[in-house]
Structures are given as structure tokens and as C-alpha cells.
């Protein structure tokens, strides 16, 4: 079974200007360079596909891909699929550019979801999802705390007990987008990056960090400088 990394890098981030490529710590080509270096250390993947509409990224990869021991494919994303609201159509497009095997979809915005954790996820997929109980895998954050919405408490029944121990609460899981793994043919069939029964991989605290807002970028950069 082949495992093929997939990395989307759309230009024009709405919240952080040049998010993928702006200087990040000592990485002059930013989060992208950092993630590519992690990829280049992985021994258990068969290829990497980077899909982008950013000419700077295409130029950078033309030279940087020499650091890899496995094939690196650069696809130029169609302009119609480079919009923030085009994810459903994008899900149908991805299998058409990917090799046969398992698609491992991740993002540069998970800078501390490193090569070791990615390899852990691959091994878990082999155990849990190949001829087994689950049909896909995604990374999540486990939330087990007191939760409210605008109608009141949703984490527990306060008529029964007002402040239970948090470890006794029913856990819920937040998708953190560090990893989605699914067979290419399954993805093509259902037009989604997870199946009906995904295995929920609870990321490490560091691996769960998602750079989505300017303050996330600042925090992640400071964390990087502490040699995590």
C-alpha cells in the first residue's frame, strides 16, 4: 500500500498575508519550507503532491524538490478552485491529480505536526483502517471541559450535577486539519476526505497547533524559537 502526501497551498490568505511563504523563524520561505523539510525526512511515504496557484511556490519547489528521496509533483491549481468557498468542488478534483494509494492530506499551517507524528499516523492507519474497522483517519483535539452555547450548558446536565470533574464529562472532538488519510478510490467515490467511519487520532498538544490567525502565527514563531 502506497502513502502519498498531499499539500494544498492556495495563495491569497484572507487572514494572514502570504501565510504560506512569509518568513517564519529562521525559515526564509516560511511555513512551507518548514513543512517540506519535515516531509523530506520521512521514510514511509511514496510521493508528495503540492497543489498551488502561487507562482512563488512553484518556482521554489522546482529547486527544493531535489532534497527528496521520493517523487515530488507540483500541480498548478485551476483558478476556479482557488477560491475560499470552493472546497466541495476541490474534493472532487484532488483524486484526479493523486497517484493510486492512500492520500495523506496535511497543511503547512500545522507546523509542529512533525515527521514523527506523521509516521505515527501512517502506522495507525495501517492498523486501524486497512481491512479493519475504520475507513479513514483524521486528526482531532479531544475536548473534555465545561461548554456553553447561547442557550446554556451543552457539556453536561446541570440539573444532575453543576460542576462535575472534567474527566467524567463525555468527550467531544474538534477537527484540527493536521491530517486526513483516505484511499484515493474511496475519496473519488464519496467526494470527501473522510469516510463514514473515520478513526479519530488525538494529536499531541504541539501537533494540534493550527496557524489560522495573525496571533497564531506570532505564537507559533515564538514557540519555534524555543527549539520545540
Automatic annotation (TrEMBL):
Signal peptide: none
Keywords carried by this UniProt record: Nucleotidyltransferase, Transferase
Keyword Flavoprotein included in the entry's annotation: no
PANTHER family: HAD SUPERFAMILY MEMBERS CMAS AND KDSC, N-ACYLNEURAMINATE CYTIDYLYLTRANSFERASE-RELATED
Molecular functions (GO terms): N-acylneuraminate cytidylyltransferase activity
Protein name, UniProt field: Acylneuraminate cytidylyltransferase family protein
Amino acid at each position: 500500500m502506497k502513502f502519498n502526501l498531499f499539500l494544498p497551498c492556495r495563495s491569497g490568505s484572507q487572514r494572514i498575508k502570504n501565510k504560506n511563504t512569509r518568513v517564519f523563524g529562521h525559515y526564509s520561505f516560511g511555513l512551507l519550507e518548514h513543512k517540506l523539510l519535515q516531509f523530506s525526512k520521512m521514510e514511509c511515504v511514496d510521493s508528495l503532491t503540492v497543489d498551488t496557484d502561487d507562482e512563488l511556490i512553484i518556482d521554489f519547489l522546482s529547486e527544493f524538490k531535489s532534497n527528496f528521496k521520493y517523487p515530488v509533483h507540483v500541480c498548478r491549481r485551476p483558478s476556479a478552485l482557488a477560491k475560499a468557498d470552493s472546497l466541495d468542488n476541490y474534493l472532487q478534483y484532488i483524486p484526479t491529480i493523486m497517484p493510486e494509494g492512500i492520500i495523506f492530506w496535511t497543511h503547512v499551517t500545522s507546523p509542529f505536526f512533525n515527521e514523527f507524528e506523521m509516521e505515527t499516523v501512517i502506522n495507525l492507519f495501517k492498523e486501524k483502517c486497512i481491512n479493519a474497522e475504520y475507513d479513514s483517519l483524521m486528526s482531532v483535539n479531544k475536548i473534555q471541559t465545561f461548554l456553553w452555547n447561547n442557550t446554556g450548558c451543552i457539556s453536561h446536565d446541570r440539573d444532575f450535577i453543576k460542576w462535575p470533574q472534567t474527566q467524567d464529562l463525555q468527550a467531544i472532538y474538534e477537527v484540527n486539519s493536521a491530517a486526513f488519510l483516505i484511499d484515493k478510490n474511496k475519496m473519488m467515490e464519496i467526494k470527501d476526505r473522510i469516510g463514514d467511519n473515520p478513526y479519530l487520532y488525538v494529536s499531541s498538544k504541539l501537533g494540534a497547533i493550527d496557524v489560522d490567525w495573525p496571533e497564531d502565527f506570532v505564537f507559533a514563531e515564538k514557540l519555534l524559537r524555543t527549539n520545540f
